[in-house]
Amino acid sequence: MSTIKNHVQLIGNVGQEPTITNLESGKKVARFSIATNEYYKDSKGEKQTDTNWHTVVAWGKTAEIVEKYVEKGKEVGITGKLKTRTYTTDDGNQRYVTEVVADEILLLGSKNDK
């Protein structure tokens, strides 16, 4: 059971081209966002869409896969965990960021998708 305490699974579309950073250690890190959609009917019976955006971070071999195959608009499946970090802005305000640290990325859609 300990493996499902902090476990995230998402399927969504990539919002922008991934940013790849090569660290001094030789390791790669990829950052990108994905949009997930939920559909429901409102009180009038009209179909509505609720879109949520998630920031995804991938390291090492997973980042290399992102670099080669993931592009804006591509549908992907992500498994990983949530990670929250804090930082201080230039004007002294503390900010909190929650990201999905990807363990595995599945490329979805057809092979002909751009």
TrEMBL record:
Gene Ontology biological process terms from the UniProt entry: DNA replication
One Gene Ontology term, aspect cellular component: nucleoid
Family annotation (InterPro entries): NA-bd_OB-fold (IPR012340), Primosome_PriB/ssb (IPR000424), ssDNA-bd (IPR011344)
Keywords, comma-separated and alphabetical: DNA-binding
SUPFAM superfamilies linked to this entry: Nucleic acid-binding proteins (SSF50249)
Keyword DNA-binding: yes
PROSITE patterns hit by this protein: SSB (PS50935)
GO molecular function: single-stranded DNA binding
Known partners and oligomeric status: Homotetramer.
The protein's name in its UniProt record: Single-stranded DNA-binding protein
Species of the source: Lacinutrix neustonica
Protein encoded by which gene: ssb
